[in-house]
Write a structure and sequence with these properties.
Length: about 170
Amino acid sequence: MNTLIISSSLAKSSKSFILCQEVHKRLQKLNVKSEIIDVRNFQLNPYHSIQSEELVHLENKISQADNLIIAMGVHNYSINDSLKIILDNCFKNVEGKFFGILCAAGGDKSYLSTMHLTQICMNEWKMIQLPRTVYASYKDFNNNTLKSKEVKDWMMLFCNEFASIGKKLMS
Ligand SMILES: Cc1cc2nc3c(=O)[nH]c(=O)nc-3n(C[C@H](O)[C@H](O)[C@H](O)COP(=O)(O)O)c2cc1C
């Protein structure tokens, strides 16, 4: 199983990127072939402008992946702008794919913001979501390291379930 982890934040010290790294490590231990795509390395142009080669490359990677883990930072109780660009431009061959969500936010009360991503993926491409989301806020990090035991335990469950359901959906 080939899992693509999309880190969609452009922030220099992105917290959702840290979640991606942690999940990547855990998936390796579960023998899942996973790769992180860090969109800070990409030129992201809005829709209706000339598409960068990087985005075409990303679209191909997303198309080829068996399943996806999408990491988002909450912006105004919704997804961030860079993730919207990726969804609009690169999600063409994702019909029915299994996916999971990792979310970083400033506070503890924005957890329903991930529902916007759920709505887009399920309504537009009939994607199937793991019904467990990893959500972390500022208080869960220290010196750009994930510290919260609660989030780490939750993440472990997320990875175990993602790996086992992901494999079953492929057979
Ligand atoms: C424009 C903007 C809007 C934000 N809106 C929210 C919000 O509605 N709720 C919240 O809990 N945090 C909010 N935040 C804080 C971010 O979710 C937080 O910085 C998080 O770490 C972002 O993920 P990232 O570090 O991976 O970019 C906002 C941050 C920015 C820059």
